[in-house]
Amino acid sequence: MDVQETTAAYRDAFAELASPACLHDPYPFMRWLREHDPVHRAASGLFLLSRHADIYWALKATGDAFRGPAPGELARYFPRVATSLSLNLLASTLAMKDPPTHTRLRRLISRDFTMHQIDNLRPSIARIVAARLDGMAPALERGEAVDLHREFALALPMLVFAELFGMPQDDMFGLAVGIGAILEGLRPHVDDPQLAAADAASARVQAYLGDLIPRKRTDPRQDIVSMLVGAHDDDADTLSDEELISMLWGMLLGGFATTAATIDHAVLAMLAYPEQRHWLQGDAVGVKAFVEEVLRCDAPVMFSSIPRIAQRDIELGGVVIPKNADVRVLVAAGNRDPDAFADPDRFDPARFYGTSPGMSTDGKIMLSFGHGIHFCLGAQLARVQLAESLPRIQARFPTLALAEQPTREPSAFLRTFRALPVRLHAQGG
Question: Where are the transmembrane segments (predicted)?
Fold first, then answer.
């Protein structure tokens, strides 16, 4: 039975995305949704957009046609917010704020978390990459299988965040264990045990950051936390400790599991499309094109978890989204919309060669980092980690191959992995 037959009478896309078939391969259902129900009303009343043009417009219109929930409305969109630490922290993040509060908070973090600051991390990132590959090499060279997800894709962003925050590596590994649980606790339709696990992990992160911030204030170093708590002669405004904790909590959530998943997807693309590896053997422009195509083909976040509330009745594709409706966007479907990207299921880095980050040669925007006022603050950090990793993996292990099929996490929200076993082919094998 094909996708259309199985879903023609379907009433909830979120439940379908959590089905075993979609967890294995969500893109046939996304194609059906985009073609037959692009402005989908789920059983919960949420609206889900799946066409690139609609998603792009909605992201760009946030702050105008759409807004985040006001404090007094939080219980409507997050019924358990009164008892959940994770949901309270989410409510205080930059992603949930509207101008002018959003404008102030984004300015305060952007004055220190700059492109220059991220570029200064490149030598450290390159050193971490080389050390992780050195650690994998002996087992691979003995013909053994190595879990690249655990040994590299997960480890790299953990160690990079340790550098960025100026904290011991072991401390970051301890905090990172719970990030996946927190992310699962923030998705729609989460159950009570998942939310409880998220809250326990959030409490550990909150307590650690609450201790880290005053230490950085009294003993500042060259890290982002020290900069964010420091005084600025040209700007007297500062982040409160509560604002800074929510910012750093949000940065961890937005940049850890997603970067690890994208590294995994990039390695799988290297193995699945060996004819495209030449992009990783040339200049930085070619590497950038490969990275952007990985992000387009396999967005780590399937759909938005943050409510975007319609400020008025909005008509899209003949469907009226009523005022005050909660609207989410299916980013992964928009990235594979043929109206935006020709032959969208084909892996083709050429579509991003020589362009601005995130923009195709046809002028279309890759949606994985969002767009508009809530464009991902960590986009450049993720891109740098990928750009520093992939050419080195290709050069160090040119005969890398799957040892067995990767194992994915059973999540409709995050397309992430539990294991990615790899080995080396014998030369000529």
Answer: none
> Which residue reads 């990275």 in tokens?
291
Q: Is residue 123 exposed (0-12), middle (13-18) or buried (19+ Cβ within 10 Å)?
A: exposed
Distance CA 346, CA 342 (A): 9
Phi-psi domain of 425 (left: phi exceeds 0; alpha: psi -120 through 50; beta: other): beta
d(C-alpha 93, C-alpha 98), whole Å: 11
Tell me 360's DSSP state.
Answer: -
In whole angstroms, what is the distance from residue 153 CA to residue 259 CA?
8
DSSP letters along 286-333, please?
HHHHHHHHHHHHT-SB-S--S-EEESS-EEETTEEE-TT-EEEE-HHH
Q: Write out the DSSP string of 70-111.
A: PGGGHHHH-TTTTT-HHHHHHHTSGGG--TTHHHHHHHHHHT
The single residue listed with the structure tokens 């019924």 is 79
End-to-end CA distance of the chain: 38
**In terms of pTM, does the model score above 0.70?**
yes
Alpha-carbon distance 365 to 403, whole Å?
A: 35
Instruction: Give the Cα separation of 331 and 366 in Å (integer).
Output: 9
Helical (H) or strand (E) element with 424: strand 421-424
In angstroms and rounded to an integer, the radius of gyration of the C-alpha atoms of the chain is 21
CA distances from 302 to 270, 309, 383 (A): 22, 19, 19
User: Three-state DSSP class for 408?
Assistant: strand
Rounded Cα distance between 87 and 199, Å, is: 8
- Dihedral angle computed from the Cα positions of residues 172, 306, 409 and 417, in that order, rounded to the nearest 10 degrees: -60
Q: What is the rounded distance in angstroms from the CA atom of residue 73 to the CA atom of residue 69?
A: 6
170 pLDDT band, cuts 50/70/90, is very high
Torsion sign over Cα 186, 189, 195, 197 = negative
Q: Which of 2-6, 61-65, 147-151 has the highest mean pLDDT?
A: 147-151
- Asked if 365 and 293 count as a contact pair (C-beta separation under 8 A), the reply is no
Which position has the higher pLDDT, 226 or 238?
Answer: 226
